[in-house]
Amino acid sequence: MKKQINTINAPQAIGPYSQAISINNMLFISGQIPANPETREIVTEISEATHQVMKNLQAILTEAGADFSHVVKTTIFLKDMNDFAVVNEIYASYFQDGVYPARETVQVAKLPSDVNVEISMIAFK
């Protein structure tokens, strides 16, 4: 059975999509941008922006009864691949068990709200 996951602790969807969908013990999390969920302000500095994205993802995982150890696949979208090392180091720090999910990182021409980083995830519960 498909279930919509929504939390006020992550930015609300601004279009026709859900923060996440849970189905058959799988969790599909929409790409999160570095928006503060309380103020909707966009964090622009790349290290702070990456932390904000990861906090938004963590809030959705928590709402779904999961955590980063449940993540099996991620996609990182970067506006500038020169930010890769900074994003990679911060991203890795959230996976405490040392078992990293499968992942791809791609540079894109433009992201929503002209942000520098967006990350989506797939997890199991």
UniProtKB/TrEMBL annotation:
Q: Name one Pfam family in it.
A: Ribonuc_L-PSP
Source species, domain of life:
Bacteria
The protein's GO terms of the molecular function aspect are: 2-iminobutanoate/2-iminopropanoate deaminase
- What are the record keywords, sorted? Hydrolase
Enzyme Commission number(s) from the entry:
3.5.99.10
**Enzyme class, UniProt record, top EC level:** hydrolase
PANTHER family noted in UniProt? 2-IMINOBUTANOATE/2-IMINOPROPANOATE DEAMINASE RIDA (PTHR11803), PROTEIN HMF1-RELATED (PTHR11803:SF58)
Family per similarity comment: Belongs to the RutC family.
Name of the protein in its database record: 2-iminobutanoate/2-iminopropanoate deaminase
Q: Please report the organism this UniProt entry assigns to the protein.
A: Moheibacter stercoris
